[in-house]
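Structure ticket #2291
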Amino acid sequence: MKLISCRIENFGKLRDFTYHFEDGLSVLFAENGWGKSTFAAFLKVMFYGFDGDNRRSEDGSERLRYRPWGGGVYGGSVIWSRGDKTYRMLRTFGTRRKEDTFVLYDEETGLPSGDFSENTGEELFGIDRDSFRRTVFWSQSDHETSATTSIQAKIGDLSSQQDDLPAYDAAVKRLSREMERLRPDRASGLIRKKEDRLAVLQADEARLPLLKAELEECSAKERALSDELDNIRAHRQHYALSASEKTSEDRPGKDSETQRRLENSEKKLAMLLEKDRSIQRRGQKERQEYLRVREALQRELLDQSRQREKQAFIMRAGAGASAALAVIFSVLCLTGILPAPVFVLSLLLLAAGAAMFWQSGRISGDTPETEEILHLRGEKEWYRDSLRELSRKMETSRMRLREQKAVCAALRRRLDRTEQVRETNVSEAAGQISSEVSGILREYDRQEEDCRVRLQEVRSQSEELAGMIRDCSASASLIENLQSEIGTLREQYDTCVSTLSYLEEARNSFTSRYMNPFLRSFSRYYSMLTGESADAVRTDADFSIAIMEEGLPRDPSLMSEGSRDLISLCRRMAMIDAMYPEEKPFLVLDDPFSNLDDERVKGGLRFLHSASLEYQILYLTCHGSRF
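Resolution: structure written out below.
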């Protein structure tokens, strides 16, 4: 296809401008600031529309950047031909995409044509906007030339299967996301989380027999203490009845109501005492765990700090060594002892040293905490909160104990006063009760209280063990399902890894078939521009370029700006040759030789005239020596 003419109504600073294109090379020479880059952008927008419509600043949005400076209709028209048909394409642009208009006419009949839609660029060139920018359209501000999947599809002549390589990108992204989600070697990965959960469940399952045995032992102790308590009470009751029969006729009745209330209060006090002891025991255990976790956290933080300082020291030492070697090589080159190319190596060493020194600074800075540290911090916070809650409960328990003790003391005083009055009234009867009987009854009371406390402790322990057994039993029932789930997830992860590997292998196999034709075209343009052989040029399945020097590949990004531009231009032309073996597209070159020296500019002009024999080229420049 070829461009015939264009008309710009208003676009950026250009207004009421018409241009007619030559069949081969069209040169637009104008000073800086005239609007050459704006003219080139107009052609791209006419075929592909605006880029960056979702951005709000002029730097990011072409629609805002090229709004007419003086108002008026925003847009224009382009007349172009393909095969034996000629078209007139008109576009106007609003403040938003939905306000844009697009009309395509058959130039010979003047009637609207449906041969192409508003996506004319993709339909005409067979590539998307980004690929157009990396090949056919050379912008002064963007010399990117890496091969997109759209370019690779076009090179592979997949016009009937345009979705194959783009679908490859989508598949790779989906597979990569799925692998990242499942990652068994990362704490955030689903498999790792499931395995950590499985380890906890298996630990619970292993504890289950021990807990059951301990519960059985507690149950036996509880039965024994219950029998002991019943025996003590029976013996005391029997002894008390025997002793009271002797003086029952002479002794008035005791204050039974006060006695009953005192017994109930003492039972309640015993329960409160048991609850208080239980809270104390739990608090002691959790405090020990809190101290253990805190010490473990301190050790982990210290280990991480030492490791970080060790890495930083190694990086700084490497940086110093690289800098020293760079200085030595530089001095030897300057004195002529070593050849000049070694000076480049010294610069690389110096750059490597700077990179290592910068990296050491990053290592010395804040480093994300490890999963273990975060886990320990969480445990520490949990135990601290639990201890605070236990402290609150302890304070409440102690307050209730004080209140209950006061009640018991008041009842005892009342009962004592009643007993004193009774003793006074029945002094003769009381004298018959020996001190030995009173001592025996008090001993029975002491034994009963001690047995009751021990029984309550065993019951509390049994309840705690029963709860732990329920939890561990629930964990054991989940293990088999979780193991099956982990196995399924691992199969999915392995499938993703294998599929990704096969896709990469298939893609490389596919693109490698076109490496030699691409390299031949690149070499032809490289020799034309530089007058040098391209024997040292190497490429790969991604159509990346490397220059061999002293047996090692050199990245063009490390070369001068002029050399990078030269290689980018050759790479673009080689890809275009491979993409369009038959009908050639037009090329837009916005001052591609601005960074070349005079000798290479001559080669560039030879390249222009040679390439214009096959391609229609719009060449924009601001300097008379470059055309």
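Closing remark: The radius of gyration is 46 Å.
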